[in-house]
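Schema walk-through. Below, the input block comes first and the output block second. Nothing else is stored per chain. Lengths vary across the set, and this one has 229 residues.
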Amino acid sequence: MSNRNEILIIDDEPQMRKLLEITLSSNGYSVKQAADAKEGLIHAANHPPSLILLDLGLPDEDGQSVLQKLREWYTSPVLIVSVQNSEESIIRALDNGANDYLVKPFRTGELLARIRSALRDQTGFENSPTMQFGNLQIDFSMRQLRKNGELVKLTVTEYGLISVFARNEGKVLTHQYLLREVWGPGYLNQTQYLRVYIAQLRKKIETDPNRPVYIVTESGIGYRFLAPE
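--- output ---
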């Protein structure tokens, strides 16, 4: 299997780099490695990869700072792989532009699924006039949502919310990101708005709103929109 996508690993642990290289290479990815921030930034600038796996605990520079530097120019996905598991670290990384965040140790199957999702976003898939997610179809040109072919009546805010989710399928979206995108910068602390509208949207799109499969809660952080395989 070959997909020609190159992944750059920026991690100071030789064992972790080796494990990731074996996993990724066996799944058809081309792999490059960097053991510190300086080497990683140089390699990313000279040979921009399709995706970067970035550790936060680098020896020469904080990974959050590296992420901020990358996001000044690098537009492809960055996935954080870190032992840091606090909500503060995760939210900060996502707000700094990370596409996703995996806490070490993680299952290789989960890593590969997150990589596939992030790379799929780069193909222009999200720019299609219509998108299909399981039994849901979103028509962006008509601003409509259908479930099993039937039109779902949405408020303007509900449509705005599902639209943001759809265009970021598979990504963790923080409470603040969703509030800023849907309501505006003046509503960043109004998380109750978000909870109310998430509940309303789940009632309309989920088979069992109490056991959601589309809009999944990331405790303390935000939500992730998942499409059934």
